[in-house]
Amino acid sequence: MSSTIELLPALSPVVENTVVDVEAETERYTGTSESTATDVPWVVLVWNDPVNLMSYVSYVFQSYFGYPEAKANTLMLQVHQQGKSVVSSGTREEAERDTQAMHSFGLWATFRKADQA
């Protein structure tokens, strides 16, 4: 349900007796939309680096994320062969937490919206 207000002529000499859809105008100026602002999850990317052994990267994925060995090895191979891998997704706060955890293990990691990964 949209909220509308009628501008009074005394308050708005340029726009006289105009009905304004407040929610639409707010969305237009803020560039947000309720349907898309919370729908897009955030992802954590782990990047290939010249320092860490593949076995260590797999171990981190198993110990931190709780992935089975096969999934951890698959993700590790993506990092090694393709240069990066999406290792988790969720809210921005979860992505920030997981990225910080990867940094604490010495891995190169970043996070971004899933539609930008």
From TrEMBL:
GO BP term (any one): proteolysis
InterPro entries reported for this sequence: ClpS, ClpS_core, Ribosomal_bL12_C/ClpS-like
Residue runs in coiled coils: none
Keyword annotations: Hydrolase, Protease
Domain Adaptor protein ClpS core stretches: 40-110
Domain of life, per lineage: Bacteria
GO molecular function, one term: peptidase activity
Database matches in SUPFAM superfamilies: ClpS-like
Subunit note: Binds to the N-terminal domain of the chaperone ClpA.
PANTHER family for the chain: ATP-DEPENDENT CLP PROTEASE ADAPTER PROTEIN CLPS (PTHR33473:SF19), ATP-DEPENDENT CLP PROTEASE ADAPTER PROTEIN CLPS1, CHLOROPLASTIC (PTHR33473)
Function: Involved in the modulation of the specificity of the ClpAP-mediated ATP-dependent protein degradation.
NCBIfam families: PRK00033.1-1 (NF000668)
UniProt record similarity statement: Belongs to the ClpS family.
Protein name, as recorded: ATP-dependent Clp protease adapter protein ClpS
Lineage: Bacteria, Bacillati, Actinomycetota, Actinomycetes, Micrococcales
Gene field: clpS
